[in-house]
Predict the structure.
Amino acid sequence: MPGLAVQRLMEQGYGFGGEGDWKTSALLRVMKIMANNKGTSFMEDYTYHMESGNELVLGSHMLEICPTISATRGLG
């Protein structure tokens, strides 16, 4: 699962951008430096649910999410 490798690299402070997007990768790296690698991650919005009063967004469709933004440590 390629997403797990991306998770671990972002956890170490590397930038990442989907589909080889080097500008987003560079921006995320700068943000991670500025935020001391806390509270920053790359995530693609994937699915929107626009029901009035019950709006939801499902993100990270390929596991591209940094563990440093989670409230608890996951499995692994």
